[in-house]
User: Fold this.
Amino acid sequence: MTFETCRQLFENGAKPTFDQIMAQCPFAEGFTGGLIGGLIVLGITIAILLGIAIYVYFALAWKTIARKLKYKNSWLAWIPIVNLAMILQLGGFHWAWIFLILIPILGWIALFVLIIIATWRIFEKRKYPGWFSLSMIIPKVGGILYLTAIGVVAWGKK
Assistant:
């Protein structure tokens, strides 16, 4: 009986509204809820996989850069937060500056500036333009440009 009512909505080329379908076809509500839930789960899964892929790329690139600069513990590039301390060391700063991360807002800004300066120095040590490090501060596309820049510095032929 339920399917008959729903079928009648679409007979003779009729184009029922969304509200009519939801009112007369009770299974449609469950279907749309499941569809929306499935799309949300798919979106979250894709975001997680993309995040993991970006992290692996970042770690591989910095591990390669550290190895080319003769840093003996290049494997530290795989450890979150510690990889930032490694970048600071490669850029000529003491690793303890990483503790600025414990100071909300102002400490984070200061650490971000130190990371930019350290990255600038690292890029110049590798014989690439230091201003590549400024790519991370460009709105919207900065992240992609920064990932491109560290890839070029890590695996580029120079």
Notes: The mean pLDDT is 90. The helical segments are 2-10, 18-24, 26-68, 82-90, 106-125, 142-155. The two ends are 74 Å apart (CA to CA). Residues 2-155 form one domain.
